[in-house]
Amino acid sequence: MAAVTVWSWLLALMAVAAVCDWTLVVVNSGVQVTRGRSVFVTQKHLKINVEPTADCKVEVVMNEPVTQRVGRLTPQVFDCSFLEDEVKYVHSGSPLLDEDTVMLRVYRFTSSETLVETVVLPVRVLDSGPGVVELGSVPLVVPQFYALSNAIDGSVLRIATSDDVVCTVRLLTADANVPALGQLVREEEDAVLRKGRETAALCPGNKPCPHDTKEVRFLKTSCQDFLSSGLKYQHLSPPSPEIDYIPIRVELREQNTRTLLETEAVWLPVLIHGAMQNQPPHAAFMASFILEVDQFILTPLTTAALDAEDHETPQERLVFNITVPPPQGYVTHLDDHTKPVRSFTWADLHEMKVAYQPPNNSQSQRRNYEVEFQAIDGSYMTSPPILVHISIRTTDTNAPRVSWNMVFAS
């Protein structure tokens, strides 16, 4: 459902752009990337109709959390006449989505005006044959809540390397928000010796197991050491979904020059026995889903008017997508309240950084609008539609007020 919403939004943007008097972007065919790898964006995928010497820049929009969900486009700002190897989309290795989007804002500066056009670059994620990294025949399995998995070794993960290259594994937990239900650990040596002499007891009830382990937060090691150092997954957060992930990136470099030959990211799945399937988020019971607004006044949208919950994903990681925007006015982020947004995080909603800007025309009667939202959890499951009613009160005053004339380019 989330994918359909994103693509509907993309088609709507393209349709609006088609009727504009001017169009900066003349080609936007999207890119295809192999899961866990990267691809350069070229003029075949994205072409902007400007002279090579024109003052024109492209900015990657970073405050739309429904975009760039399984990858990143770099650099964040680049020239409209970019080079063939300058702009790159890097996939995170996530197996959760088969498509992604990148929102771009194109600025064309002239002596008299600034033209702005917003486009959405579609990204198709493909699964290829065997690459540098391949999942083995034995999965990582946690037998019960709070327990340790089997060790990561050559039967769990196969890495295609040779003696004449330098093979390195990096842990990507800082960027990927996984593992979400546990952590990567290394058992202390004395604990390993004790396990050789005695049978490990089962975890007592709903309490953490007394493991002698040390959390591994940052890791850069050789591929051989990664597969032989006895790294394990420790479950920490019941109740939980039945699967979690350990994200890694494998790099192959030339032995003498350390030139990067190949790189691939992969999310190593961890199966959790006794867990339930992930459930979609839902609207919170305590929210009113009504927003009272004074005419012309930018009004914060709070969790008292809009809220959602999810049993598996922490609230601060939930995302709201605007599936049906208001017919007049717009929802905005206070980092730049002159531009509308189509999505935002629960954390920004909680911190009152999301607001509704009513239309800039006076009315003698109260106006009522409906806005439809959708909550998205950490596994990209979507909630049923959440309807918020916006009621704009009239203002009886003869005081002067500031008016503006703005055009939002699409």
How does this model look, in words?
With 410 residues, this protein is mostly beta strands. The chain is 10% helix and 40% strand. The chain has five helices and 31 strands. It has helices at 2-18, 173-176, 189-197, 223-228, 346-350; strands at 25-28, 31-34, 38-41, 46-48, 56-60, 71-74, 77-79, 87-91, 99-109, 114-126, 133-135, 140-142, 157-159, 165-171, 182-187, 213-215, 220-222, 231-235, 243-254, 260-272, 282-283, 290-294, 299-300, 308-309, 319-324, 330-333, 336-340, 343-345, 354-357, 367-376, 386-393. A five-stranded mixed sheet has the order 2-10-9-5-7, covered by helices on one side. A five-stranded mixed sheet has the order 12-20-19-14-17. Strands 22-31-30-25-28 form a five-stranded mixed sheet. The longest helix has 17 residues, at 2-18. Mean pLDDT is 87; it is low at 14-20 and 196-201.
Summarize the structure.
By secondary structure, the protein is mainly β.
Key attributes of the depicted protein:
410 residues; 31 strands; 5-stranded mixed sheet; 10% helix; mainly beta; 5 helices; flat
Secondary structure layout plus pairing:
Blueprint: H1 2-18, E1 25-28, E2 31-34, E3 38-41, E4 46-48, E5 56-60, E6 71-74, E7 77-79, E8 87-91, E9 99-109, E10 114-126, E11 133-135, E12 140-142, E13 157-159, E14 165-171, H2 173-176, E15 182-187, H3 189-197, E16 213-215, E17 220-222, H4 223-228, E18 231-235, E19 243-254, E20 260-272, E21 282-283, E22 290-294, E23 299-300, E24 308-309, E25 319-324, E26 330-333, E27 336-340, E28 343-345, H5 346-350, E29 354-357, E30 367-376, E31 386-393
Parallel strand pairs: 2-10, 12-20, 22-31
Antiparallel strand pairs: 1-4, 3-8, 5-7, 5-9, 6-8, 9-10, 11-13, 14-17, 14-19, 15-16, 15-18, 19-20, 21-24, 23-29, 25-28, 25-30, 26-27, 26-29, 30-31
